[in-house]
Amino acid sequence: KQEVTQIPAALSVPEGENLVLNCSFTDSAIYNLQWFRQDPGKGLTSLLLIQSSQREQTSGRLNASLDKSSGRSTLYIAASQPGDSATYLCAVNGGNKLVFGAGTILRVKS
Amino acid sequence: DAGVIQSPRHEVTEMGQEVTLRCKPISGHNSLFWYRQTMMRGLELLIYFNNNVPIDDSGMPEDRFSAKMPNASFSTLKIQPSEPRDSAVYFCASSLQVAGYTFGSGTRLTVV
Questions:
Q1: Of A36, A93, A102, the CB nearest to B42
Q2: What confidence tier does A41 reach under pLDDT thresholds 50, 70, 90?
Q3: I need a surface site. Which of A7, A39, A53, B49 has the fewest CB within 10 A?
Protein backbone atom coordinates (compact mmCIF):
# COMPACT_ATOMS: atom_id res chain seq x y z
CA LYS A 1 0.00 0.00 0.00
CA GLN A 2 1.42 3.35 -1.08
CA GLU A 3 2.13 5.79 1.74
CA VAL A 4 3.07 9.41 1.20
CA THR A 5 4.80 11.53 3.83
CA GLN A 6 5.39 15.26 3.73
CA ILE A 7 7.95 17.12 5.80
CA PRO A 8 7.73 19.58 7.44
CA ALA A 9 4.11 19.59 8.54
CA ALA A 10 4.23 23.37 8.91
CA LEU A 11 6.66 26.09 7.94
CA SER A 12 6.78 29.80 8.70
CA VAL A 13 9.30 31.96 6.86
CA PRO A 14 9.91 35.66 6.19
CA GLU A 15 9.15 37.00 2.77
CA GLY A 16 11.89 36.57 0.20
CA GLU A 17 13.29 33.28 1.45
CA ASN A 18 13.86 30.31 -0.80
CA LEU A 19 12.34 27.18 0.63
CA VAL A 20 12.05 23.45 0.07
CA LEU A 21 9.12 21.18 0.79
CA ASN A 22 9.75 17.47 0.95
CA CYS A 23 7.65 14.49 -0.08
CA SER A 24 8.52 10.80 0.25
CA PHE A 25 6.64 7.72 -0.92
CA THR A 26 7.04 4.04 -0.16
CA ASP A 27 6.33 2.39 -3.51
CA SER A 28 8.53 3.60 -6.37
CA ALA A 29 6.30 2.03 -9.04
CA ILE A 30 4.52 5.25 -9.94
CA TYR A 31 3.19 6.84 -13.12
CA ASN A 32 3.57 10.40 -11.98
CA LEU A 33 3.61 12.76 -9.02
CA GLN A 34 1.60 15.94 -8.70
CA TRP A 35 1.98 18.94 -6.40
CA PHE A 36 -1.15 20.86 -5.42
CA ARG A 37 -1.86 24.02 -3.54
CA GLN A 38 -4.92 24.44 -1.32
CA ASP A 39 -6.02 27.75 0.15
CA PRO A 40 -8.21 27.68 3.29
CA GLY A 41 -11.75 26.64 2.47
CA LYS A 42 -10.93 26.21 -1.20
CA GLY A 43 -10.29 23.41 -3.66
CA LEU A 44 -7.02 21.97 -4.94
CA THR A 45 -5.04 23.80 -7.58
CA SER A 46 -2.51 21.80 -9.55
CA LEU A 47 0.97 23.34 -9.50
CA LEU A 48 3.23 20.84 -11.21
CA LEU A 49 2.97 17.35 -12.68
CA ILE A 50 6.08 15.19 -13.04
CA GLN A 51 5.88 12.00 -15.08
CA SER A 52 7.86 9.01 -13.84
CA SER A 53 10.36 9.40 -16.69
CA GLN A 54 11.10 13.02 -15.79
CA ARG A 55 13.50 14.40 -13.18
CA GLU A 56 12.01 17.86 -12.73
CA GLN A 57 9.42 20.39 -13.80
CA THR A 58 9.44 24.15 -13.50
CA SER A 59 6.73 26.79 -13.47
CA GLY A 60 7.69 30.34 -12.65
CA ARG A 61 9.19 30.43 -9.15
CA LEU A 62 8.32 26.78 -8.56
CA ASN A 63 10.55 23.81 -9.31
CA ALA A 64 9.70 20.22 -8.49
CA SER A 65 12.14 17.34 -8.67
CA LEU A 66 11.53 13.60 -8.64
CA ASP A 67 13.87 10.80 -7.62
CA LYS A 68 11.74 7.74 -8.19
CA SER A 69 14.34 5.20 -7.12
CA SER A 70 14.66 6.76 -3.67
CA GLY A 71 10.98 7.60 -3.40
CA ARG A 72 11.44 11.34 -3.00
CA SER A 73 10.23 14.59 -4.46
CA THR A 74 10.96 18.17 -3.48
CA LEU A 75 9.11 21.36 -4.25
CA TYR A 76 11.37 24.39 -4.37
CA ILE A 77 9.81 27.85 -4.03
CA ALA A 78 12.08 30.76 -4.90
CA ALA A 79 11.75 34.24 -3.41
CA SER A 80 8.67 33.39 -1.35
CA GLN A 81 5.81 35.90 -1.09
CA PRO A 82 2.91 36.28 1.35
CA GLY A 83 0.60 35.14 -1.45
CA ASP A 84 2.36 31.76 -1.38
CA SER A 85 0.82 31.06 2.04
CA ALA A 86 -1.29 27.92 1.67
CA THR A 87 -1.21 24.17 2.22
CA TYR A 88 0.93 22.29 -0.27
CA LEU A 89 -0.03 18.71 -1.05
CA CYS A 90 2.03 16.03 -2.73
CA ALA A 91 0.13 13.24 -4.49
CA VAL A 92 1.46 10.07 -6.08
CA ASN A 93 -0.25 8.24 -8.94
CA GLY A 94 0.52 4.52 -8.74
CA GLY A 95 -1.75 3.47 -11.55
CA ASN A 96 -5.30 4.62 -11.35
CA LYS A 97 -5.57 6.75 -8.28
CA LEU A 98 -3.79 9.51 -6.41
CA VAL A 99 -2.53 8.95 -2.88
CA PHE A 100 -2.02 12.16 -0.95
CA GLY A 101 0.35 13.23 1.76
CA ALA A 102 -0.98 15.15 4.75
CA GLY A 103 0.41 18.41 3.40
CA THR A 104 2.76 21.18 4.46
CA ILE A 105 1.13 24.34 5.82
CA LEU A 106 3.21 27.28 4.63
CA ARG A 107 3.04 30.77 6.06
CA VAL A 108 5.10 33.54 4.48
CA LYS A 109 5.34 36.61 6.68
CA SER A 110 5.59 40.09 5.22
CA ASP B 1 -12.91 24.70 -20.41
CA ALA B 2 -14.98 25.27 -17.27
CA GLY B 3 -13.08 22.65 -15.32
CA VAL B 4 -14.68 20.08 -13.02
CA ILE B 5 -18.03 21.37 -11.83
CA GLN B 6 -19.53 20.30 -8.53
CA SER B 7 -22.88 21.14 -7.01
CA PRO B 8 -24.02 22.23 -4.57
CA ARG B 9 -21.12 24.21 -3.10
CA HIS B 10 -22.60 23.96 0.38
CA GLU B 11 -25.17 21.58 1.82
CA VAL B 12 -26.64 21.61 5.31
CA THR B 13 -28.98 18.78 6.13
CA GLU B 14 -30.50 17.04 9.11
CA MET B 15 -29.35 13.66 10.27
CA GLY B 16 -31.25 10.89 8.52
CA GLN B 17 -31.88 12.83 5.33
CA GLU B 18 -30.67 11.76 1.91
CA VAL B 19 -27.90 13.85 0.36
CA THR B 20 -26.90 13.85 -3.30
CA LEU B 21 -23.70 15.46 -4.52
CA ARG B 22 -23.15 16.06 -8.22
CA CYS B 23 -20.14 16.28 -10.48
CA LYS B 24 -19.52 17.13 -14.11
CA PRO B 25 -16.01 16.09 -15.20
CA ILE B 26 -13.92 17.76 -17.86
CA SER B 27 -15.04 16.75 -21.31
CA GLY B 28 -12.82 14.01 -22.73
CA HIS B 29 -11.48 12.83 -19.38
CA ASN B 30 -12.06 9.12 -18.91
CA SER B 31 -11.51 8.76 -15.17
CA LEU B 32 -13.52 10.27 -12.34
CA PHE B 33 -12.75 10.22 -8.65
CA TRP B 34 -14.62 11.09 -5.47
CA TYR B 35 -12.53 12.20 -2.48
CA ARG B 36 -13.49 13.24 1.02
CA GLN B 37 -11.44 15.67 3.09
CA THR B 38 -11.56 16.07 6.87
CA MET B 39 -9.17 17.62 9.33
CA MET B 40 -8.60 14.29 11.04
CA ARG B 41 -8.06 12.07 8.01
CA GLY B 42 -7.00 14.41 5.23
CA LEU B 43 -7.94 13.47 1.67
CA GLU B 44 -9.39 9.99 1.25
CA LEU B 45 -10.35 8.34 -2.01
CA LEU B 46 -13.90 7.03 -1.84
CA ILE B 47 -14.44 5.58 -5.31
CA TYR B 48 -13.23 5.98 -8.86
CA PHE B 49 -14.59 5.24 -12.32
CA ASN B 50 -12.85 4.44 -15.60
CA ASN B 51 -14.96 4.94 -18.71
CA ASN B 52 -18.06 5.24 -16.51
CA VAL B 53 -17.43 1.88 -14.81
CA PRO B 54 -16.73 1.75 -11.05
CA ILE B 55 -13.27 0.28 -10.58
CA ASP B 56 -12.51 0.57 -6.90
CA ASP B 57 -15.04 1.45 -4.22
CA SER B 58 -13.02 0.12 -1.30
CA GLY B 59 -12.84 3.61 0.17
CA MET B 60 -16.60 3.96 0.51
CA PRO B 61 -17.05 3.97 4.27
CA GLU B 62 -20.41 2.24 4.56
CA ASP B 63 -23.37 0.96 2.62
CA ARG B 64 -24.98 4.32 3.26
CA PHE B 65 -22.71 5.69 0.54
CA SER B 66 -23.32 4.99 -3.14
CA ALA B 67 -22.00 6.49 -6.37
CA LYS B 68 -23.11 6.33 -9.97
CA MET B 69 -21.81 7.50 -13.30
CA PRO B 70 -24.63 7.07 -15.83
CA ASN B 71 -22.64 8.76 -18.62
CA ALA B 72 -19.30 10.35 -19.32
CA SER B 73 -20.42 13.81 -18.28
CA PHE B 74 -22.14 13.22 -14.95
CA SER B 75 -21.65 11.46 -11.62
CA THR B 76 -23.44 11.46 -8.29
CA LEU B 77 -22.43 10.55 -4.77
CA LYS B 78 -25.36 9.75 -2.52
CA ILE B 79 -25.50 9.36 1.25
CA GLN B 80 -28.63 7.79 2.69
CA PRO B 81 -29.23 8.19 5.57
CA SER B 82 -26.77 10.93 6.42
CA GLU B 83 -25.07 11.15 9.83
CA PRO B 84 -23.16 13.98 11.55
CA ARG B 85 -19.85 12.12 11.05
CA ASP B 86 -20.35 12.44 7.30
CA SER B 87 -19.70 16.17 7.60
CA ALA B 88 -16.71 16.94 5.39
CA VAL B 89 -15.70 18.49 2.10
CA TYR B 90 -16.32 16.17 -0.82
CA PHE B 91 -14.22 16.66 -3.93
CA CYS B 92 -14.68 15.30 -7.40
CA ALA B 93 -11.71 15.04 -9.77
CA SER B 94 -11.21 13.88 -13.33
CA SER B 95 -8.22 12.87 -15.43
CA LEU B 96 -7.23 11.42 -18.78
CA GLN B 97 -5.08 8.30 -18.44
CA VAL B 98 -1.82 9.33 -16.77
CA ALA B 99 -2.32 13.03 -17.23
CA GLY B 100 -2.72 15.15 -14.15
CA TYR B 101 -5.84 15.32 -12.08
CA THR B 102 -8.16 18.32 -12.07
CA PHE B 103 -10.25 18.87 -8.97
CA GLY B 104 -13.58 20.61 -8.57
CA SER B 105 -14.18 23.27 -5.95
CA GLY B 106 -15.79 20.77 -3.60
CA THR B 107 -19.06 20.45 -1.72
CA ARG B 108 -18.97 21.33 1.96
CA LEU B 109 -21.46 19.03 3.68
CA THR B 110 -22.73 19.69 7.18
CA VAL B 111 -25.04 17.16 8.79
CA VAL B 112 -26.73 18.42 11.96
A1: A102
A2: confident
A3: A53
